[in-house]
Amino acid sequence: MIVGKTKKTWGLLSLASVPLVMTLGNSMLIPVLPTIGKQLQISSFMVSLLITVYSVVAIVFIPIAGYISDHVGRKPVIVPSLIIAGIGGLMAGLAAWKMDNAYWVILIGRLLQGIGAAGASPIVMPFVGDLFKNNQDVSEGLGIIETANTFGKVLSPIFGAVLASIIWYLPFFSFPIFCFVSIFLVLFLVESPPLAKKPTNLTRFLKSMKKIFKREGRWLYVVFFVGGMCMYILFGVLFYLSSFLEEAHHIDGIRKGVILAFPLMALCLTSYGTGRIIGQDQIKMKWMTVAGLCLLAVSTFVVSFNKELYVMLTALFAAGVGIGAALPSLDAFVTEGIPMEQRGSVTSFYNSMRFVGVAIGPPLFALFMKGNHFWTFAGNALLVVLSVLLVFWGVRPHKKVSQTWQ
């Protein structure tokens, strides 16, 4: 029994490497984007597409990957996806190194990375639900996965700035190495549980999904919206803070990366703690979500009144704590509340909404920054308050997840 639990622990840690790697592959380019623009002599809009294409492609392919994983298994989707993502990173690095007009080849490489990301990181959530039968273990496992995801965001600005200070295109080459390590871990340390049922044809699958959303739609739509909103606020605020540090305080490079890491570190540690606290108790999940969103609303509203650096950093640290409390609870709701045979597909829609938040956060905040600072943050604080009201309206938990969605 101990051996079995040890195997599952190593399997969980190996799975946690997947969101860590995928996050590094995208987020570590953020502090390097100005340098890439100068080296390739392209506009800021063209540079921003290197981030946007990754997220947009992932949004499209995540539901497809989720559907396939429900029918052929999680590992047969995750491993090839990591290979595709690694090839994309290698293509981008070689183009940046060897080609004169490398931009379009780099963009294609980023597109491949987005396709790989769609079949890798989002499939990890239902995989955790498959590995553990005890909901307490599932919640703790999802907390670790969310922590790994956030830890990747913590490392990304620092790691990207360090690598780019050596050679500007080194971040592209580092990604295939990370993918190879994750592939090795998943292949040899993760055991795939048997599929719940034999694969169903597409027509029957669509009917079953329609039935699930008809029966569970009220809480699912709320969880989808709130998850996307959290990622929108997170990436939008990070973009805003990155620009603010450079323009107002002339802080860039590794120093800027370290400062950006502080609110992300708060998110990382809170995610881990939340996963251990909520267990299988849906009431705790709901109140952790509400508490986290309330803290996020207050901290966002505080920033609207003050542009002092230390006030902003303190408030954004608190915002990181708030998002760190909400996300693992949302993950647990959507993972534990869906039968195994549809879990990959439903969680894939949830992850697509999170990627929508990632994709729209920076450009929308860039647009807001041209206007009034107060309304930029006060308006988004009102959006978070709306999310709190939606959680109260749509999520009605029982003490045990297994009793809730019957």
TrEMBL record:
Recorded superkingdom = Bacteria
Query: How would you describe this protein's topology in the membrane?
Result: Multi-pass membrane protein
* Domain (Major facilitator superfamily (MFS) profile) ranges: 11-399
Matching Pfam families: MFS_1
Where in the cell?
Cell membrane
The family database entries (SUPFAM superfamilies) matched by this protein are listed as: MFS general substrate transporter (SSF103473)
What are the GO cellular component annotations?
A: plasma membrane
Q: Which GO terms describe its molecular function?
A: transmembrane transporter activity
Query: Which positions, given as ranges, span the membrane?
Result: 12-33, 45-65, 77-97, 103-129, 175-196, 217-241, 253-273, 285-303, 309-327, 348-368, 374-395
The UniProt entry, under InterPro entries, shows: MFS, MFS_dom, MFS_Efflux_Transporters, MFS_trans_sf, Sugar_transporter_CS, Tet-R_TetA/multi-R_MdtG-like
Does this UniProt record's set of keywords contain Membrane?
Answer: yes
Alphabetical keyword list: Cell membrane, Membrane, Transmembrane, Transmembrane helix, Transport
Which family does this protein fall into? Belongs to the major facilitator superfamily. TCR/Tet family.
Q: Which PANTHER family match?
A: CHLORAMPHENICOL EFFLUX PUMP RV0191, PURINE EFFLUX PUMP PBUE
Recorded protein name is Efflux transporter multidrug resistance protein
